[in-house]
Amino acid sequence: MSEERTEKQVLNADEMRRAIVRIAHEIAERNEGVADVLLIGIRRRGVPLAQRIAQALLDAEGVQVPVGQIDITLYRDDLSLRHPYPMVGPTHLPGDITGRTIVLVDDVLYTGRTVRAALDELADFGRPARIQLAVLIDRGHRELPIRADFIGKNLPTARDEMVEVHVSEIDGGEDGVFIVKGAS
């Protein structure tokens, strides 16, 4: 018996924009500016979110913060369970990360395993002064002791629910965050 898919929008495009601007301001405040900050988006949806945070920082601080991206596919602890031939995307860091403040950006923080994989990958590229985490949505249900430094929205969910973040750069159409339950 297949369960019917239900979808509830919890953030619209304007609410997402406001959350991103708020995150940008919090990053600048916590780091006393952004002169030493690098934004690193976790592929896929973390990348456009990092680019949007960079634009908000440029608007607010007048500083162009470098943006990079990492693909954590080969660092996942469930790689053998997911797909026998994984599709690996590019990792691009905008310069040396050693001694810099890295802000990892992702769309949803759930178990913490994606962030753990990102931390492992970053360690292969250098030793940052500090690593902070910015997420649009924190949905709880952590399996690892990882927490976000900057959160757009805390969104308590049930384990059988999924959180889908739609960004126009990847998904086309309008931005939004949805709680989805049931078959897809």
Overview of the structural elements:
There is one protein chain. With 184 residues, this protein is of the alpha/beta class. The chain has a single domain, classed as Rossmann fold (3-Layer(aba) Sandwich). Helix content is 29%, strand content 28%. It has five helices and eight strands, in the order βαβαβαβαβββαβ. A five-stranded parallel beta sheet has the order 3-2-4-5-6. Strands 1-8-7 form a three-stranded antiparallel beta sheet. Helix 2 links the parallel strand 2 and strand 3. Helix 1 crosses helix 2. The longest helix has 18 residues. The mean pLDDT is 94.
What is the secondary structure topology, with strand pairs?
Layout: E1 6-11, H1 13-30, E2 37-42, H2 46-61, E3 67-70, H3 79-82, E4 101-109, H4 113-123, E5 130-138, E6 150-154, E7 161-166, H5 168-171, E8 176-181
Parallel strand pairs: 2-3, 2-4, 4-5, 5-6
Antiparallel strand pairs: 1-8, 7-8
Helix pairs in contact: 1-2
Note the overall shape: globular
Binned, the helix content reads: 25-40%
Structural class: alpha/beta
Q: Low-confidence parts, pLDDT < 50 over ≥5 residues?
A: none
The N- to C-terminal Cα distance equals 14 Å
Q: What is the chain-wise order of helices and strands?
A: EHEHEHEHEEEHE
Q: Identify the strand order in the major beta sheet.
A: 3-2-4-5-6
CATH architecture: 3-Layer(aba) Sandwich
At the third CATH level, what is the topology name? Answer: Rossmann fold
Question: Can you give me a brief rundown of this structure?
Answer:
With 184 residues, this protein is of the alpha/beta class.
